[in-house]
Amino acid sequence: MKIIVCIKQVPNTNEVKLDQQTGTLIREGVPSIINPDDLAGIEAALAIKDSLGAHITVVSMGPPQADIALREALAMGCDAACLITDRAFAGADTWATSSTLAGAAQLLGYDLIITGRQAIDGDTAQVGPQMAEHLGIAHIPYAEDIKADGEKIIVTRQFEDRYQLLQAHYPVLVTALSELNQPRYMSVGGVVDAYDQKEVRLLTYADLETFVPVENIGLKGSPTRVKKSFTKSPKGKGELHQVSEDEAVEIIIQKLKGHLIL
Amino acid sequence: MSKDVLVFCEQRDGVLQKVSLELLGEGKKLANTLGQRLIALLLGHEVEALCPSLVSHGADEVILVDDAHLRDYLTEPYAMAMADVLNEGNFEIVLIGATAIGRDLAPRVAARVKTGLTADCTSLEIDPETQDLLMTRPAFGGNILATIICPQHRPQMASIRPGVMLAPEPVADATGTVRRFDVDFSGLKNAVVLLESVKATKKAKDITEAKILVSGGRGTGKEGFATLNRLADLLGGQVSASRASVDAGFADKDRQVGQTGKTVRPQLYMACGISGAIQHLAGMEESELIIAINKNPSAPIFDVADVGIVGDMHKILPKLITKLEQMA
After folding, report:
1. Which CATH code for domain B207-327?
2. What is the pLDDT of residues A214-244, one digit of tens each?
3. How many domains does chain A have?
4. Which residues 20-79 of A have a C-beta within 8 angstroms of B?
5. Which domain holds residue A110?
6. Which CATH topology does B5-187 take?
7. Cα distance from A232 to chain B (closest Cα, Å)?
8. For B135-180, how does the pLDDT look when each residue is reduced to its tens digit (9 = 90+)?
9. Which residue does chain A place closest to B320, by CA atoms?
10. How many Å lie between the alpha carbon of B201 and the closest alpha carbon of chain A?
11. Residue numbers in A near B80 (CB within 8 A)
């Protein structure tokens, strides 16, 4: 079985702090990590490889630094790695990103594709389903459990108020939740191999042009544009209320509404 | 020429989801600004009875696709039906709830009809100059906001989380039409088969992953924690605890926030009967919104709280719970 796992290298958004004076993001010194849902995707693929045998290619679209994330995946036990990197891909939104990744999947061949549900820097959850659409294959999102055999896969698909058990035959794409599993650590031998024995194959647009027309990539292939971005105003001084119980309840309700919690 | 605002109205087991009404309210505002009509799209099986509610909440027209293929939510039949409707209608704007259904269906459909989609928007406006939809959403873990546009493609698609927009009051004598729309499912391919659908009993989540935490201290007491559980359920959150309350046996160790417990950063941290030892504050002061209730006006928790209430949680919380139950 051929498995492709798509991963993204992201800044650890939990470590990002706001400069209270200027209200801007402090990006310096924020470590890059493999996106947590994607890490669960890697583990899910490795578990299938452990039980059934599989060849796993881990794929990332991003800048050259994403090489580190791919080597980490190799060190965990993935068999091959591809970095899709080219100026032509710059400025891609989810539509163009997914069509580019779909092109890479066609080039590489696959039975099963696993992506994370969403990346913590964008949180859109769009690239997985859109990649499946570009490939014309089915997808199952929000996987919290995966059981695979040689012909088909059975996925526990999470909803807010229920779960579904869904079955699909290959080829199929699954989006993984970080709750899916506990990713394994890189082994020492794996780390050595990842740098000495294994290659990260570079893919540029020239490698993919048979599969993806130029009008479907990069900024040109992106229906959406960022018009502006801005930071939320920094935290003001807190308020203290000494009021009746009913007024206190009203204040709390209004705050929860104001913060979109209700 | 594209026109009209379409809202995907989600139902589950024949029950209309509240987010659908919220989006009708928001969609109506956008439609009025543009001088266009509001269309509700309802997909399901034997769900015609829901149409009057969509009209009374603002829809000028309901497009109803009623078919056995749409009884349970499955991506492909729903995507087929929605893409068919969008291809026929050439809509200006499409809104969809950012639920486990909408966040799956919308990207698949947007890819199929080749248009842009902006996820989890918190505000929508019409640009007075270009008439484009300005879609603002949080990014980068909620640290920044970005305004997204989709200038060259129609429809402009946006998903919005439940609870972000206000549901309008129903208007009893509102008029609107219902149009049945037939979809040919014979070409259904890549079939994903539903083996089983199970209503979930809630599992306790890791508190570091919770978006909402209702937290108790020594002053909360064992019964107070039962109250917190009810409140957390109503808010869709989890219960956490101070070290003192864990040591007193009111809560499990895995619920503990603070230096010797876990560091949390939820959207809402509600500290109830927690005085706020420095070790506790270290574990929660980065929370987005901190609401604290404590009897002691000089409790250190009020130094980090956005909203401090001086009072008795045992009296305030039951009233808050009653109020929330009425709103639900």
Report:
1. 3.40.50.1220
2. 999 999 999 999 998 887 654 556 899 999 9
3. 1
4. 25
5. 2-216
6. Rossmann fold (3.40.50)
7. 6
8. 999 887 666 889 999 999 999 999 998 777 888 999 999 999 999 9
9. A249
10. 8
11. none
